[in-house]
Amino acid sequence: MKVVGFAGYSGAGKTTLVERLIPVLKQRGLRVSVVKHAHHRFDIDHVGKDTWRHRQAGAFEVVVASDQRLALMREFEVPVELTVHQLLAELHPAVDWALVEGFRHSDVLKIEVWRPSDDGEAPRPALYIDDPFVTAIATDAPDGLPEATARPVLDLNDAEAIATWLIDSGERFDYNSGHHG
């Protein structure tokens, strides 16, 4: 499995980029999974449905499956912040690429999605200046980057080119789960 993160501040375009990359990678015959950090009380379940009722009754885990999909819901007895590595360990072993959205401070190699601030706002800070795990920057304003960089600067609006860069750089994104706690 190859793993690449997409990091950047809210509104920079991470979700849109990941959404555009998935079909491009799939068209190239690759199986793609996404690991996404969510906020506290997100839910994929619906009040009154069987699985919701099982969780309400106190089940630690509910696995629901059809011939089309599988979902696992696990309730934590106490709040826990799982690491990106713990979440990657949950993925199917036949995944070619795992795209990680969020987890800005994790130690996975990542592409920074950077845009200049909106009119009148202070310039957005750039992660690549201090984060050695940022391997490239995807932006639609390369001339606005706050600091020159030797890292590749990719066109945020060209998912095909970003997919090609990822595949061409593939070996560096090989994930060895044994190296992480």
TrEMBL record:
Biological processes, Gene Ontology terms: Mo-molybdopterin cofactor biosynthetic process
Stored InterPro entries: MGD_biosynthesis_adapter (IPR052539), MobB_dom (IPR004435), P-loop_NTPase (IPR027417)
Domain Molybdopterin-guanine dinucleotide biosynthesis protein B (MobB): 3-140
UniProt name for this protein: Molybdopterin-guanine dinucleotide biosynthesis protein B
Taxonomic source organism: Variovorax boronicumulans
Domain of life: Bacteria
One Gene Ontology molecular-function label: GTP binding
